[in-house]
Design a protein that fits this description.
Length: 427
């Protein structure tokens, strides 16, 4: 099987270059101007950005156990529509992938139903209960991409240190949702203006930053790769920045919503603004942008967290935490950061491709001969409104409905095969 993508706009250090990309047997074989070939399939990409397939290392596909919210099939199709060709699936499912048997079941399910590559996380502790470590060696062998108890923090420092030492030996990353349960304060929003205004309990910044500071010191002791999920406070950014200065092997991700919104943007008692960690203060939002620009924060991940309409209709206090993100991440950030000159297009693409790949040593995220043909074509010019009714995800829970965006993916190719095409849908 061969394919030729013609006249795509490739990003280079000096702007755009118009190139053709020749794909054979799922891999890129040539990139250059006006390639002649007898490809079986020809794709005209004139005027479209041609970029490596995007990578999102933080998504909740909800299967098994949460199929009303999302499945591996619907979540990966939503990802393909968003331009992603690789996602990493969080383990806070029911059951949790915390054993070899469960991981093998998950791998089989991914094989059967996913449209793009899914890297499964395994949990750090059995059932994510924080009581007993899982068998890391067995889980790694069964295909676990990294280890995390995302959804909850690992409360015991002793347990975390033990986990990190084991992970260091096996060369597998510890990925942390940082939240100290004694500081949550039964909160639903950031502990500040909005929570007070709505009479709702607030989650203080220290709830996150204290865990990050603790874990950084533990990671220094253990010598493992420690990754911070969805960083949200200025103190957290400072802690990670300091850790990097001292050569501690820590990486961090930030979500599109924490970059684009703060508590001042919350409209009324709408649970589409409820996520964990919560939208923080304007100062925090600015510190996250600064951290992203100076390399403290390594990449962007969506924390795609679908819920049903009924669940999210319960109001801020009762509804579950989380918003969807896969289908809106790139256009939102292109329109609100690149077009507003806060990031260059190259930086944005890198934060979704080579940066997450490098942080975890993955062989994806670059367009070059020999690489797997994971490619997205993006229309940077056409403007469209975000309409949750058009999502392929089962989740409609987004605070960005109605936002006008440019930079929409129009075709997603994974391993040389068209997975999704605008106007055609699943191919
Ligand atoms: Zn989390």
């Amino acid at each position: 099987m061969s394919m030729l993508i013609k006249n795509g706009k490739l990003l280079t250090e000096n702007g755009f270059e118009t190139v053709d990309i020749f794909i054979e047997n799922g891999k890129i074989s040539k990139i250059g101007p006006q390639l002649s070939s007898d490809a079986e399939q020809i794709i005209e990409a004139e005027g479209k950005l041609v970029a490596p397939g995007l990578i999102d290392l933080h998504v909740h596909l909800r299967e098994p156990g949460g199929e009303k919210k999302e499945t591996i099939a619907t979540g990966t199709l939503a990802a393909a529509k968003g331009g992603f060709t690789t996602v990493a699936a969080m383990p806070n499912t029911r059951p949790v992938p915390d054993s070899k048997a469960q991981m093998e079941w998950l791998q089989e399910r991914i094989q059967e139903t996913a449209s793009i590559r899914v890297l499964p996380y395994a949990s750090i502790t059995v059932r994510e209960l924080g009581q007993e470590l899982t068998d890391f060696a067995e889980l790694k062998e069964a295909g676990a991409f990294a280890l995390t108890d995302d959804g909850v923090g690992v409360q015991s420092a002793g347990m975390m240190l033990k986990a990190m030492k084991k992970a260091a030996k096996l060369d597998i990353a510890i990925v942390a949702h940082c939240e100290d349960n004694t500081l949550i304060n039964k909160g639903s929003l950031h502990e500040w203006k909005k929570a007070e205004e709505l009479g709702i309990n607030g989650i203080p910044s220290v709830c996150e930053s204290v865990h990050i500071a603790r874990d950084i010191l533990l990671a220094e002791e253990a010598g493992c790769h420690y990754h911070v999920c969805h960083i949200s406070t200025k103190e957290s950014v400072r802690a990670v920045r300091d850790a990097k200065k001292y050569g501690i092997k820590v990486t961090a991700e930030v979500t599109p919503h924490h970059l684009l919104l703060c508590e001042d943007d919350i409209l009324g008692n709408d649970a589409n603004y409820k996520m964990n960690p919560p939208l923080r203060s304007k100062e925090d939002q600015e510190a996250l942008m600064e951290g992203l620009l100076d390399g403290t924060i390594d990449f962007i991940a969506t924390d795609h967290a679908p819920h049903t309409r009924q669940e999210k209709a319960e109001g801020i206090e009762l509804a579950p935490f989380g918003i969807v993100g896969l289908e809106t991440a790139f256009p939102l950030l292109y329109t609100n950061l690149v077009e507003k000159k806060m990031l260059t297009l190259k930086e944005l693409v890198d934060f979704f491709t080579i940066k997450p790949a490098k942080a975890f040593g993955l062989p994806y995220g670059e367009l070059k001969p020999g690489a797997l043909a994971d490619i997205v074509l993006i229309d940077l010019n056409q403007e469209e409104e975000i309409n949750p009714d058009e999502f392929l995800s089962k989740g409609r829970n987004t605070p960005f409905a109605g936002w006008n965006c440019k930079g929409w993916p129009v075709m997603t190719i994974a391993k040389g095969k068209i997975i999704w095409e605008k106007g055609v849908g699943k191919v």
